[in-house]
Amino acid sequence: MRDSVNSYFIAIDGGGTSCRFALQSPSGVTYARRGGANVSSAPQAAIAVLNEGLIELSTLAGLEAARLGEIPIYAGLAGVVDDAVSQFVADQLPSRHVLVEDDRPSAVVGALGDRPGCLLGIGTGSFLARQTQDEMRLIGGYGSILGDESSGCWLGKELLRRALHVLDGILPTSDLVESCLSEFQHDVVQIMNFSFRAKPVDYGGYAPRVVQAARAGDTVGQELMVAGADYICSGLTALGHQPGEIVCPVGGVAEHYVDYLPAEIAATVTEGQGVALDGALELSRRFARQVGQETA
Question: CDD domains under this entry (predicted)?
Answer without folding.
Answer: ASKHA_NBD_GspK-like
